[in-house]
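Sequence, please.
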């Protein structure tokens, strides 16, 4: 046949055919009743309360069972082949009554149980999927709970630590309150003294200005003869060492120092010499030692390049402006803003001489090459 490969959708065969038989029986009874009425015969009246018909379950025959099974599993081509062979054998009379009988109930029951088991398995798989999802969600929530619990404990520990630190700082601050009060009183007293000193300074400044004006007026009326007599007055000669005889050869004439390229210099060491700025630096004539003078009113000697402290000195009342080694390396001279020049002896580790002839700060000092003379330059325009 041409229609062997068509995709025809077969429907299940209904098992109850009682309705068709009942309808045939009802038509026959109605016809007999109509004939009796036409012939004038007595017609049996129908019962007042018709009995409820009983529904009998007819067993499923073999061919219907096979058709339903093939249709359920989707084997449509096999179903077409079965239909052709089944009806061909039926027309030829090759099918016995035993072969086409009803299917035993045990097979139907087994088929029903298999279908129910299949449905239950599907439900069980779905339930397992739901249970797995619930288990994963529970594990996630448990991990988050543990994490938040640990984080909460850590926050509580940090809170307790901060509280302890705050208490300790409060106690520490309470100990400093008396000292702060005393320092505040000292500061107020110092500010009062400072204001008094400023007032005294202004008063003395005004007095000095008046005295300078008076001196200028006196100098303007002094006779010229006095100036001439002062100019001709012999100056006192300093006692001690005598000046070198002239002419004298230059001791530094044979000394030569060829310049070096800046690129060859490199930083070897750095030392924290003073707490404030360094004003002057001098190198020892024979040893690897340098001396530094600072605004902190001190001078210090250091090894080079180790940076170890050798000696230090304090004695000036104001900042230091200059420092210079003796040509023989046995003494050190310093100039300061307190108008003084000091000479320090290394053998006795003390100040051997102090010169206070200047009226203003000393800016620079220098030794004579023989070491017998020391020159100083000051802001009072004298040397």
């Amino acid at each position: 046949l041409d229609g062997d490969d068509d995709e025809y959708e077969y429907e299940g065969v209904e098992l109850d055919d009682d309705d068709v038989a009942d309808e045939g029986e009802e038509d026959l009874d109605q016809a007999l009743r109509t004939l009796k009425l036409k012939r004038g015969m007595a017609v049996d009246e129908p019962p007042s309360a018709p009995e409820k018909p009983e529904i009998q379950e007819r067993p499923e025959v073999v061919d219907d069972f096979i058709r339903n099974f093939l249709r359920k599993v989707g084997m449509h081509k096999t179903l077409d082949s079965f239909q052709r062979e089944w009806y061909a054998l039926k027309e030829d009379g090759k099918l016995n009554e035993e072969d086409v009988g009803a299917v035993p109930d045990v097979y139907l029951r087994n088929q029903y149980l298999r279908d129910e088991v299949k449905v239950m398995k599907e439900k069980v798989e779905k339930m397992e999927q739901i249970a797995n999802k619930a288990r994963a969600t529970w594990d996630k929530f448990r991990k988050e709970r543990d994490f938040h619990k640990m984080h909460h404990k850590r926050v509580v520990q940090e809170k307790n630590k901060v509280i302890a630190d705050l208490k300790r700082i409060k106690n520490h601050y309470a100990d400093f309150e008396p000292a702060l009060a005393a320092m505040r009183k000292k500061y107020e007293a110092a500010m009062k003294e400072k204001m008094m000193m400023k007032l005294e300074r202004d008063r003395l400044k005004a007095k000095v200005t008046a005295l300078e004006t008076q001196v200028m007026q006196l100098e303007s009326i002094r006779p010229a003869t006095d100036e001439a007599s002062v100019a001709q007055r012999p100056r006192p000669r300093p006692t001690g060492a005598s000046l070198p005889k002239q002419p004298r050869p230059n001791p530094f004439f044979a000394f030569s120092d060829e310049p070096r390229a800046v690129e060859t210099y490199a930083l070897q060491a750095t030392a924290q010499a003073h707490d404030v700025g360094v004003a002057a630096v001098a190198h020892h004539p024979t040893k690897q030692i340098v001396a530094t003078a600072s605004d902190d009113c001190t001078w210090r000697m250091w090894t080079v390049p180790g940076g170890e402290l050798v000696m230090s000195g304090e004695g000036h009342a104001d900042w230091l402006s200059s420092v210079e080694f003796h040509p023989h390396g046995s003494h050190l001279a310093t100039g300061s803003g307190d108008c003084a020049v000091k000479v320090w002896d290394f053998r006795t580790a003390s100040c051997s001489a102090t010169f206070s002839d200047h009226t203003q700060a000393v800016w620079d000092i220098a030794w004579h090459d023989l070491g017998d003379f020391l020159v100083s330059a000051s802001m009072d325009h004298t040397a």
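Residues 125-200 form one domain.
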